[in-house]
Specification:
By secondary structure, the chain is α+β, with helices and mostly antiparallel strands. It is built from 2 helices and 5 strands, in the order αβββββα. The protein is about 15% helix and about 20% strand. It is globular.
Length: about 90
């Protein structure tokens, strides 16, 4: 049986550099490193990081697992929770 449960934690966006870190970051090209803020995004998500992703240097592809810890942030609102639910399906 697949466990589709995700853990949602409320965090302060102003402290993102302190908590949006992974224990063993992937070795990514410099252009894919860091925290990406989605200014102007009409959807209820704020930012993402790709450090927990799988980078294939030979094929220049990135596997981004949306529900891994510390990947994506969503608004703490009904719309944000609805987007998380939609992405799980």
């Amino acid at each position: 049986m697949i466990n589709n449960t995700i853990l949602i934690k409320k965090k302060q966006l102003k402290e993102i550099a302190n908590w949006m870190k992974v224990e063993h970051p992937a070795e990514l090209p410099e252009v894919l490193q860091g925290i990406f803020f989605m200014d102007g995004n009409v959807l209820p998500d704020d930012c993402l990081t790709m450090y927990s992703s799988d980078w294939n240097n030979d094929q220049l592809t990135l596997l981004l697992r949306v529900f891994d810890p510390v990947i994506w942030t969503f608004h703490s609102s009904m719309k944000g929770r609805m987007l998380v639910d939609l992405l799980q399906k």
